[in-house]
Amino acid sequence: MNIKKILVVFLAVAGLLTVKAAEVDSTFTIAGSKGALATRLQLPDLKPDEKCPVVILCHGFCGNMGGPLFDTITADLLKAGIGVVRFDFNGHGRSEGDFQEMTVPNEIEDAKKVIAWTERQPYTASVSLLGHSQGGVVSSMTAGQIGAGRIAAVVLMAPAAVLRDDALRGNTMGAMYDPWNAPEYVELFGGIRLGRDYIETARDLPVYQVASQYAGPVLVIHGTADRVVPYTYGERYAVELPAAHLELIQGDDHGFSKTVSSSSALAAGWLSGILKK
Question: What pLDDT sits at residue 277?
Fold first, then answer.
C-alpha cells in the first residue's frame, strides 16, 4: 500500500474516532438547598455537539439515587439514547444536610437547582422528571411550579401524596405525634429523626393543587398491592393532572420489587416515545 492510500485510510479512521464519543458516567456535586448534593450523570454515546433528552430521577423518603429500580430505569433510558441525572436529596445518601431538617419544600428547591444545572449543559435537548414515592410528590409539584415550558414530561411511580394525610393523622412510618402541636422531632426506624418542619409543611402541603398546574404529559405507575402508598393516590393524580395516564401494576408493591424489569421498561418506553419523536 503506497503512502497516499495509507494516508486516506488513516484519515478515514481518524474521522470515525472523532464522531464517536464514549458513554459518560461521572459523579460530582451540585449546590442544593441545604448544601452539596451528591450527583451522578450518565449519558449515551453522543457525537460532538449532539444533544439528547435528559431525565432527572428523584428518589423517595429515606432513599437514595441507587437501587434496583433506578439502576434498571437508567439502563433502559441510556439504551434509548436518553441521558440520566441522579442525585441524593439533602440529608440523604451522600449529600450534605441533616435529615431532621429535610422537608418536601426544600426537596423541591433541591430539584429546581438540579434542573437549572441540567438545563445549562451543552448536551441537554430537554429536561424531564421521574420520581418515586416522595420523589414523585416532589417531581409533580416541581413540574407544576415551573411548567411544561421547561419540563418535557413527568413519570410518577407510586407517588406518595399520602404523606399529607399521614401528617394530618399524626402517624408517619408508625411514629405517632400530635400534628397540631408537633415536637421538635419524632424518632423513626433506625433512630432517624423526622423534624417538626417536615410535619408542619406536610400537613399543609397543596400536593394536587400545585401538581395540576403542569399541563405536559404525565405517566403514573402504581402497584395495586402497595401498602405504603395505596394506589388510590395514584388514581387521584391521574384525575387531577390534565394530561396524565395511569398504569396500575397488578399485585406489585411500593418498590415494584416483583416487576422491576417490566415497570422500568414501561417508564423508559413511555419517556422514549414522548421525548424521541
Answer: 78
CA–CA gap between residue 114 and residue 40 (Å, rounded)? 11
φ/ψ bin of 158: left (φ > 0), alpha (ψ from -120 to 50), beta (otherwise) = left
**Half-sphere exposure for 81 (CA within 13 Å, toward CB):** 13
Residue pair 89/37 in contact (Cβ under 8 Å)? The answer is yes
Cα–Cα dist 116/114, whole Å: 5
What pLDDT is recorded for position 23?
A: 81
Tell me the residue type at 15.
G
Rounded to whole angstroms, how far apart are CA atoms 58 and 35? 17
- Name the DSSP class of 89: P
Q: How far apart are CA 103 and CA 205, in angstroms?
A: 11
Q: Which residues of 190-219 are buried (b: 16+ CB within 10 A; e: fewer)?
A: eebbbbbbbbebbbebebbebbbbbebbbb
What predicted TM-score, i.e. pTM, was given to this entire model? 0.91
What is the CA angle 165-168-171, rounded to 5? 85
Which residues have a Cβ under 8 Å from the Cβ of 20 and sit 6 or more positions away?
Answer: 45, 47
State the pLDDT at residue 104: 98
Beta bridge partners of 130: 57, 155
At 10 the pLDDT is 37
Block residue for cell numbers 387531577:
240
- Cβ atoms of 104 and 90 within 8 Å: the answer is no
Collapsing DSSP to helix, strand or coil, 54 comes out as strand
Mean pLDDT, the chain, integer: 92
Ranges in the chain, pLDDT < 70: 1-22
